[in-house]
Amino acid sequence: xxxxxxxxxxxxxxxxxxxxxxYKNSSVVSLAxxxxxxxxxxxxxxxxxxxxxxxxxxxxxxEGISPRDVRNNADLKVEQTLDLxxxxxxxxxIDTVKEPLYDLLDIYFRDPxxxxxxxxxxxxxxxxxxxxxxxxxxxxxxxxxxxxIESTEKNTIYPKLxxxxxGSTLFDNAKDIAIPYIKMDEEEHSAEAAGVALFSGQVxxxxxxxxxQSFYMLLLMDKANQHARIQxxxxxxxxDVPVTGEVIHLKRKWIINEEMKKITMDFKIDVEIEEFSKxxxxxxxxxxxxxxxxxxxxQADFExxxxxxxxxxxxxxxxxxxxxxxxxxxxxEDWREQFASLTIEPKVKVTIIRTGILR
Amino acid sequence: xxxxxxxxxxxxxxxxxSSDFTVRQVDWREGTSAILCxxxxxxxAKEAQKLLDTIYARxxxxxxxxxxxxxxxxxxxxxxxxxxxxCNGETxxxxxxTGEMLSLTIVNRVHRNPDEPNNEHVLRGSHEGLVxxxxxxxxxxxxxxHNPSLVVKSFSIGKETNTKAYxxxxxxxxxxxxxxxxxxxxxxxxxxxxxxxxQLSDELEDSVWSPFPQLLNTxxxxxxxxxxxxxxxxxxxxxxxxxxxxxxxFFSFYQSPDDYNGRVLVGSFYRIVRLMSFIAAVFLPxxxxxxxxxxxxxxxxxxxxxxxxxxxxIPYRPLIEALILEIIMELIRExxxxxxQSVGQTIGIVGGLVIGDAIVSAGLVSxxxxxxxxxxxxSSYVVPSVELNTSIRMLRFPFMVLASLxxxxxxxxxxxxxxxxxxxxxxxxxxxxxxxxxxxxxxIYKVFVRGPFFKPTVQVTSFSSPKDDSVxxxxxx
Lengths: 359, 477
Hints:
The complex is a heterodimer. Chain A contains ten helices and 14 strands. By secondary structure, chain A is of the alpha/beta class.
């Protein structure tokens, strides 16, 4: 009995130590980057290090044949254990995503200690300057890009995405993703949100939507975030007047005509005028003119974005999912080709419901 | 040797020639003599003399009830009874001729004023406190309940010490099984020398080894009365100001007279704060240890840098680090109880400033650990009951060990074991974790909120949930 108790106690006491990961013995990586191609990947890991009470960002570089190998090699260069459980952002070079994206992400899903609510972004060229940039602007590398991406999401430039959502869409053949794209502003030496990278299935199509286009893509997706501002230069009485409207409500209706292979998209957009430097906005005439001009311009931009999406066979709007659910006979296995051949016709109706506190 | 002298000898012998035992021969009616005997330490001599004068004045008038006053009784003499009376502090006049004895109940009562107890301060409401004398205590309680249904039953504890004790209840409010149970337990008390209330509560508790007290200790008469009207039994002894109250639930330890003296919203708010403090006091250090050694990914990114900086240079594992501080904390507490008040402030400075600040600069523990331990200490002192306070502070140590071994998983195991224990526990055979087990949805809000005061709550008497509506708690008179 006594002996048994000791054995049980020992087993219990030993079990805990196997799982223990002391915080002080881990290097907590908050920003990771990867570039290169299969067989010769290069990875970057940024973690904070304290010297004389002064925290600074350390950058570890490693090479390897696979993402896991890169991480193992990076671990060799760190005095403590490399720990990715507090990772906030993952940066991927634009050249790397021309190969299937999931190859890079697999290790993040396989290990339960990796967070999957992190942000993912694609960078122009190598990721190294982007990571090195954080040394100057912040003491929290991953947090910088996390905030950067989140604030851009709020302005309806980037779609609301995290690693988990990307992972689940990658294997859906009826929907594609668009991943935030960051480029370097060489003059000011800072990162800049430069639209989204369009994916067709697992691979990057090579086409990047600029911020304006990606904004209209998000409107098409009915994913207007906290701020969704439409801005145009309108010609009123032979005068160029900049007008800004904020999207308040957006109603979307898809009408699918199976025989004619045509999708009509009805959009009803309610906007609030946020900028209009001229007077007399309240006049029925001005009102109507602005509404109509908005309508035309938005429709033209919608058509442009849809055209790009169809050219790239990248169904980021999720039309495939809709058709698979409501018109299963119309849905073909090779959805992307079918998507490219569809006639998609957006119809926009704009109503100005508010004019700000000025009339 | 005449009869009187013989008797005096035997009395002296019975009291072992104790110095404070006084035996004197006095003159009695028509040239006879009587024996006056008493414990000089127990008798108020001045008052006794006055009474004796009255008796003397009546003695020769041959009135039939000359001996009867409020404080005197005449009885047939027997030695054992005489000894009992004298031990109770009465003055005895033994009349050998008639074989009678006259007892004068004038006891020199030694007790302090009914000041507010130091360990149960309230902001508003009564500031009276019980004292070390049953009679005064009963007076304080009777003052609050002018009703014959407040029943006081006496018994004595300690075969040798014969200490006076009482149990009180309110007739018709108390449940019959509660009364039967407490009487059974009082009968079963087996103590030779009784000198501490702890002995009594050990004898009366359902599970002595449980960390949770099953009897509520209080020194406040208003708290006693509040519990009496809820159908509880109160035990008071002659040697301690502490009243023991049973049966109680876990949540009654978290209620304070302040809740009811204040207003409804205020009382409810502070009751919730107190219940939260239980969680903080038991789990906070364990939670911190678990995060630092197992699950640091739950820290927000903004905080993680700071925490990492703090923790990096600490030479010990988090458990040792926590134990160092916790033990210092307990030492400060223990020493501040013993120290006289004038020196008490020194401990505050030594403990708070010197140890708190210096221990961090010395690199023994991290800043955050100091915050955690300080917060835990403050939370544990929020409990209005001293017993529960000490048990809570003890409880957090096993949780800390579990957290250092298994992280959150260990804490969960600990919580499960703790809950199983609490659910199983009973106070006077009545559920301790009521109203959660047995589950009473209508009563459960009272745990968190002090509702407007209409009716007192009575604890359910059985572990199985009451089915009939009429048996539910609401039916108190």
